[in-house]
């Protein structure tokens, strides 16, 4: 059949990246984690001490960074210029600030453009917040993946490394705050596209959800 693009959007911790990566693996498609790109820009801005409100400085900063996503054994590797930032972009300091940088017009414009270029050849599974609504509005399959806040927090909790310890309640609050910021922003907020299929993963296994998405994808090919 034809190669298609699959957009997977949804709130933090719904399992988008795990699902998207496995769907891409089954279909032999390319997986693109757009959240990693927003995280990389946030890391670069923090290091350069550029505030999220400083549009002019952000614009200059964006010109200096190149983000590369590479497939790795345990997930995607993220490179910024000549540095592997895979671990650094998952740190608490980045997670807490990323939604402020992601709300800026110049950041969204530049990253959306890169994302569209990556999807131009089709055969892409892209996950994020605005893929179905803004980045790839004509993606052949759009999924809006959710799960209850408590399930999302407990999944994240299990993934925390020993040095990242945080109690479940704090984690739940942090996830809820990020969702709120992502939903309330003016430019391409987190919202289910009208033509997206809502998939609630609460109580479902990863394999179950992956299979559902793959089957939906095959119907569009
Ligand atoms: O997917 P992940 O949780 O790593 O995304 C981190 C943050 O990046 C989100 O909370 C959101 O603020 C931003 N983001 C976005 N648009 C996307 C992907 C991520 O605004 N397409």
TrEMBL record:
EC number from the UniProt entry: 2.7.4.25
Is the Cytoplasm keyword given for this protein?
yes
What lineage does UniProt assign to this protein's organism?
Bacteria, Bacillati, Bacillota, Bacilli, Bacillales
Q: Report the subcellular localization.
A: Cytoplasm
Is NADP a UniProt keyword of this protein? Answer: no
What top-level class of enzyme does the UniProt entry assign? transferase
Domain Cytidylate kinase span(s) in chain numbering: 6-216
What does the record give under GO molecular function? Answer: kinase activity
* UniProt keyword annotations, A-Z: ATP-binding, Cytoplasm, Kinase, Nucleotide-binding, Signal, Transferase
This chain's source organism reads: Paenibacillus yanchengensis
Protein family per UniProt: Belongs to the cytidylate kinase family. Type 1 subfamily.
Principal location class: cytoplasm
Which reactions fall under this protein's catalytic activity? CMP + ATP = CDP + ADP; dCMP + ATP = dCDP + ADP
What name appears for this protein in its UniProt entry? Answer: Cytidylate kinase
Residues the entry annotates as binding ATP = 10-18
